Amino acid sequence: MKEDYIKRINNILLFIDDNLDQELTLETVAKIGNYSPFHLHRIFKAITNENINEYVTRKRIEKAASILMHKKEITIAELSLQYGFNSNSSFTRTFKKFYAISPSEFRKTHSNKFSKIGKLDSKNGQENGIADEYICNINNHKNWITMKAKIEIKKLPKLDLAYITQIGHNGMQNAYSKLIKWATPKGLLENEDLKIITIYHDSFKITDPDKVRMSACISLKEKINVDGEIGLTTIESGKFIVGHFEIGIHEFEKSWSGLFIWMNENGYKKADRNPYEIYYNNFNEHPEKISIVDFCIPIE
Q: What are the residue boundaries of the HTH araC/xylS-type domain, all occurrences included (predicted)?
């Protein structure tokens, strides 16, 4: 796939992210990438394995799912209208195709996952069993965080980044290899303040792992000219929960889950920005394959 195609598709992906509550016709999106609708349809599917309509619908439903999990004050009717569905029933039918349950059931289920332990109320033995399992799981994550993480609330600075887009988690090592190969002859890795960062544009809780979009990034002293599939992006300064971990690769998921539980248990709300990881070593060079990493959750 030509690098220029990927660069233009990156611009389209960013445009879609920022305009999920607007009308996103094939013609509108094609103009952003300077494609004809016919060519965009073909190239977009080749890169993302979804056509435009499928991708936009999925992103809208996933955005709605995230709001259902984190913002109880927004009604299902408001979400349906905001993301372009003709009716609540249309929204519910589409939502069920992705999650097999209705939006209201999804909200109830996932609100319980992140509610405080003391709010659980059981009325029979079966529910007590579910509650006991839930409490055990939550307590395991809380104990994990207590043992493994140093957690702080910080205002983090603005970061200018060069990045490569990766769709699907299995390709991240290859994405970083290409990024490093591009950056090395330019001397960009000699920056003493260099940061290696992964930005998560989707959540593994609501998006299939092979469709999760991530950005493999390096920080820049200043913006530079880029070409091909290398793009430029910025993480704006803001308030973050920062969890510092020294963990194995297989422990990342548990650490992220624990940190989000800590966030909710302590009354913080995730902001409408993307979480990211900052790496401080190459785990392959560590004798015990340990990764030293900060997990950063933007908060309101």
A: 10-109
